[in-house]
Design brief:
It contains 15 helices and 22 strands. The chain is α/β, with parallel strands linked by helices and 472 residues long. The chain is globular and about 65 Å long. It holds the Pfam family Aldedh.
Length: 472
């Protein structure tokens, strides 16, 4: 296990690089110091990009098998160091070790890496006849800049790093200033099994992200984060026409149909909304329920919530932990208080406990309405507004009314009925009787304001390549 007081460094060309400035990372459940994060300067970033650019010269010429082997070594490294990384992740992010927490995240990172190692980028033959042969080749782009958020710092880092390396690119990654330490440690470990310069990590404050998006020697930016920041990334990337993949925020709607069984769907509804304490882009954040079963659905959710243990992430019996940071905690408190003032009913939770840490109880809010902030704004916390409807067509229209569209779901005792409603939701991924379940082979991305491009699977891998068509 790493020393709790460790001063972390950047990792450039496989070496730990100290900086002149650091800031503290504290446990969101206790306020205790976890470690100190280095603050990279523009010169540090230039050095990291130069290292990646130099490594690209040889890595881009590596064989397909060499790249697959490298990805498998990444998966093996995650597997071998799972407990150390899970504990560090819990201490800086807050999520529990168990349940859908840090160990779950690490297992997911390993699984995504292993699957990506099986993907192929074959030459596509577009024509082969007496008039000639035309082939489509996929070529690596160069240096990929990765900017990751604080909710799944290791899993999303792997989502960015692995396809980039598999396609023959090199990487400079910048983790969130809220949760940088687990990513730095991961990159340090991976540099033991990758060629020097293929994977580098820089850390610091938000201004470092803009330096990356404007850097002339970075050919692609992959960014996961808020819609507002995503727009800034896209604007800055235009300086040298960088490729961008943007997985941005959502405000996912779920629609329960009148024939649904409230008790049967309660558990899946709950975890669709409260996975990672609701701090998930594709979590269920607005639940539309018909009049005839409205009270029963609310009651079933509250009954399930009563048995969910909230506590410090290192406690083996904790199922949910604290909100990760003060800014997000205060936003959640503000949204719930605003809902109360505007006539919504808090069925459970709604009052932060005394004591240290950014703990907020699981909160179900009834009688929420479109137009309330708690419905129209992404909560990104342990709160679910339940909205009543009488007409299904109106519910679909209300679900589609916002300018975001990451995920959505429909719930019914008849899966075909639910599928027909899910298909009408304006979102990149639609679920039937489930919400938030993603797969490494299924492309994932948003529509409208929720992003640009997709991740995962063959389509996601192709986003890290350029097309060259060869005529002969």
């Amino acid at each position: 296990m790493q020393d709790v007081m460790e001063r972390y460094g950047l990792i450039i060309s496989g070496e730990k690089v100290p900086t002149s400035d650091y800031f503290e990372i504290r446990d969101p459940g206790t306020g205790e110091l976890v470690g100190e994060c280095p603050v990279a300067t523009k010169q540090d970033l230039d050095r990291a990009v130069a290292s990646a650019r130099d490594a690209f010269k040889s890595w881009s010429k590596s064989t397909d098998q060499e790249r697959k082997d490298a990805v498998n070594r990444i998966a093996d490294t995650i597997h071998a160091n799972m407990e150390e990384l899970a504990e560090l992740l819990t201490r800086e992010q807050g999520k529990p070790l168990n349940g859908l927490g840090s160990r779950f995240e690490l297992h997911g990172a390993e699984a995504w890496a292993r699957h990506t190692g099986t993907l192929e980028l074959p030459v596509e033959v577009l024509q082969d006849d007496e008039t000639g042969r035309v082939e489509l080749h996929r070529k690596p782009l160069g240096v990929v800049g990765s900017i990751t958020p604080w909710n799944f710092p290791i899993l999303i880092a792997i989502w960015h790093i692995v396809p980039a390396i598999r396609a023959g690119n090199t990487v400079v990654i910048k983790p969130s200033p809220y949760t940088p330490l687990s990513t730095i440690r991961l990159v340090q470990m991976l540099n033991e099994v990758l060629p020097k310069g293929v994977l580098n990590v820089v850390a610091g404050r938000d201004d470092l992200g803009q330096m990356m998006t404007e850097h002339p020697d970075i050919q692609k930016i992959v960014f996961t984060g808020s819609c507002a920041t995503g727009k800034k990334v896209m604007q800055a990337a235009s300086s040298n026409l960088k490729r961008v993949t943007l997985e941005l925020g959502g405000n996912d709607a779920g629609i329960v149909l009148p024939d649904a069984n409230p008790k049967e769907i309660a558990e899946r509804l709950f975890w669709g909304a409260f996975i990672n304490n609701g701090q998930t882009c594709a979590a269920l954040k607005r639940l539309y329920v018909p009049d005839n079963i409205y009270d029963e659905v609310c009651e079933a959710l509250v009954d399930y919530a009563k048995n969910v243990q909230v506590g410090h992430g290192l406690a083996e019996d904790s199922v949910l932990g604290p909100i990760q940071n003060k800014m997000q905690y205060e936003k959640v408190v503000d949204l719930v208080e605003d809902a109360k003032r505007n006539g919504a009913r808090v069925l459970c939770g709604g009052e932060p406990p005394s004591g240290p840490g950014f703990f907020y109880p699981v909160t179900i809010v009834a009688d929420a309405k479109d137009g309330m902030r708690i419905v129209d704004e992404e909560q990104f916390g342990p709160v679910l507004p339940v909205i009543r409807y009488t007409d299904l067509e109106e519910a679909i229209e209300r679900a589609n009314s916002l300018d975001v569209g990451l995920g959505g779901s429909a719930w019914s005792s008849d899966p075909e009925k639910a599928k027909a409603v899910a298909a009408r939701l304006e979102c990149g991924t639609a679920w039937v009787n489930n919400h938030g379940a993603i797969k490494p082979f299924a492309p994932f991305g948003g529509v409208k304001g929720s992003g640009l491009g997709v991740e995962f699977g063959e389509l996601g891998l192709k986003e890290y390549t350029s097309v060259q068509v060869v005529h002969q």
